[in-house]
Amino acid sequence: MTACRHLVAALVASIFGFAAGGALAAPPAVEILNMPHPPVKMALAPLRDWLASQGGKINVVEIDVESPQGESRLHSAGLNGHVPIVILIDGQYRHTLKDGRSIEFVNFPSIAGAPPGVRGNWTITDVQAVLTELMK
Question: What are residue 59's DSSP bridge partners?
Fold first, then answer.
C-alpha cells in the first residue's frame, strides 16, 4: 500500500512538473573554450562580467582550448585548428537569433577598434540575447 502511495505521489509530482514547463527547466549551460592569452582575456571580459552578474541562472564552465581537455572538447564540437574562442551554449556554437540571423560563436567577437584579424562577426550582445531567450 505504501509503495502505491509513493507511485501516486510521484505521478502527481510529474504532472505538476510537466504543467509548470519552463519553470523546472535546467539553466542554460555555457562552455567557454578559449586560449589563455591577453587578447582573448580582454575580448571575453565583458561576457565574463555579464555571466557573473546572472548568478545561478546560467551554468558556466571555462576550458583552456590548448589543454588536452580543451583540444578534445573542440574536436567533439566539430572544430579544429587554431581557434582562440568558442562559446558553446547547451553544447552548440551555432545559433539563430530572434531576427533570423544565423551566427557562430567562434573566434573573436566583433570589438570596436580591434585590428581586422581580431574582429569577428558576432558580439557579446548576441551571446546575451541567445542566453536571455533560453532563460525565459
Answer: 29
